[in-house]
Amino acid sequence: MKMKRKLCVAVWGMSLLTACSIPKAGAPEWFENAVETSGRQLLYMAEQLENVPDTACFPRSVKEDGSYRLENAKDWTSGFYPGSMWLAYDLTGDEALAKEARTYTNRLEDIQYYTGNHDIGFMMFCSYGHALRLKPESKDKQILVNSSESLCARFSPEVGLIRSWDFGDWSYPVIIDNMMNLEMLFWASEQTGNSKYRDIAIAHADKTLKNHFREDMTSYHVVSYSVPSGKVESKGTFQGYSDSSAWARGQAWGVYGYTMCYRFTKNPVYLEAAHKIVRFIMNNRPSEKDYIPYWDYNAPDIPNAPRDASAAAVTASALLELNGYTDDKKLSDDYTEYAESILKQLSSPEYLAKDKENKGFILLHSVGSFPHNSEVDVPLNYADYYYLEALKRYKELKKFC
Ligand code: GLY
Questions:
Q1: Substitution site in 174, 382, 385 for ligand 1 pocket (most atoms within 8 Å of beta carbon)
Q2: CA geometry: angle at 270 spanning 268 and 274, to 5°?
Q3: Contact at 8 Å (CB) between 202 and 265?
Q4: C-alpha closest to that of 379 among 399, 351, 400, 355
Q5: Residue 130 CB less than 6 A away from ligand 1
Q6: pTM above 0.85, yes or no
Q7: Which of 113, 150, 145, 107 is nearest to 129 (CA)?
Q8: Contact criterion met (CB below 8 Å) for 9 and 27
Q9: Buried b (16+ CB within 10 A) or exposed e, 126-165
Q10: 177 in active site
């Protein structure tokens, strides 16, 4: 990073001499520290995991006894560790990160045919998607197209939605998180020219918008449908505090999901949804200068309830896209400032791990599933992933060297 800064100064000097381009800005210290810490942590983790068997090698979190929670490739979070390394490589240029990222990405190859959940977008687009973008290999693109096919296998034309889960007592459960996996489908249509993937994504986004949201644009976590009628059977939660509460990560998935859908469709209805969802998030932050939500906006023990850094990171990343989709300069600036505030808070010692602590994860204080007493106030690999994605978007916006 220091070398990069010198280069930056040199380039800046050259541009002043030629007076033909606007100089790029150097990054602030908190940002540089965040990026450098992230790269070091991810490589430290790779070192710790050097001897774990390939069958359960994906670090997801830290268990109560202080050991790694490691998962196999079929876990919904398997793509985030390789994805984080790709993002950190993108931010730092450190080839060691790219090497590890490729190793972990290739361990996911068989998942292209996996149809056991809706999460294949998270698993494959967050890993192979960046691999293809940054250091493509011949099989990458076809693997992602095959993965999109696998996701489409979970779409029922009668119901008009992708089925999220195969467990539980619901007839046809659809969760707000499922919005995130549509990105790979939009991508697949653009790549192949086959509109099928995009049509399914749009059907899913439309019906989710109709049935998942309340008046204030907070969302239910799980909506279940009758089959084959496609009528709503129940609305409730699985990971939130109650059926009527606003689970923090669900709100974040919503704003990210509809912002991304707007990117591919330019449908103003999706854009309006994203604006409204984020308005709720911004209006309901813990306090004026505190941007990290409690795990559920209706948690009964606020202000003592655990925070969810993952929800904050997803929101920051979404805002750094949504800010580009409005002509209202003040609103755009508000979004940027809010995202920046989240990133600064996550990059403070309260949330950012110290070197070689936190088992190599980057962020502290996320919540997986509070009602199941699972992963409460722990590091989570997807908090790290969306934090890095937000840092990358922030860097691009600010045009740091
Ligand atoms: N997609 C599962 C979760 O957000 O916990």
A1: 382
A2: 115
A3: yes
A4: 351
A5: no
A6: yes
A7: 145
A8: no
A9: bbbbbbbeebeeeebbebbbbbbbbbbebbeeebbbbbbb
A10: yes
Q: What is the signed CA dihedral for 399, 326, 390, 201, rounded to 10 degrees?
A: -130
Cα gap 132→127, rounded to integer Å: 9
Burial category of 104 from C-beta neighbours within 10 Å (exposed 0-12, middle 13-18, buried 19 and up)? buried
Burial class of residue 274, CB neighbours in 10 A (0-12, 13-18, 19+): buried
Looking at the CA of residue 180, tell me the nearest atom of ligand 1. Answer: 1
pLDDT tens, per residue, the chain with 401 residues: 444 444 444 444 444 444 334 556 799 999 999 999 999 999 999 999 999 988 899 999 999 999 999 999 999 999 999 999 999 999 999 999 999 999 999 999 999 999 999 999 999 999 999 999 999 999 999 999 999 999 999 999 999 999 999 999 999 999 999 999 999 999 999 999 999 999 999 999 999 999 999 999 999 999 999 999 999 999 999 999 999 999 999 999 999 999 999 999 999 999 999 999 999 999 999 999 999 999 999 999 999 999 999 999 999 999 999 999 999 999 999 999 999 999 999 999 999 999 999 999 999 999 999 999 999 999 999 999 999 999 999 999 999 97
Domain boundaries, the chain: 29-398
Cα end-to-end distance, the chain, whole Å = 10
The response to whether residue 239 sits with its C-beta less than 6 Å from ligand 1 reads yes
Of the residues 75, 140, 177, 384, only one is catalytic, namely: 177
Burial 318-339 (b: 16+ CB within 10 A, else e): bbbbbbebeeeeeebebbbebb
Strands ordered across the beta sheet of 173-175:
173-175, 222-225, 232-236
The answer to whether the beta carbons of residues 147 and 124 sit under 8 Å apart is: yes
Beta bridge partners of 374: 369
**190 three-state secondary structure:** helix
CA–CA separation, 189 and 144 (whole Å): 11
Domain 29-398 top-level CATH class: mainly alpha
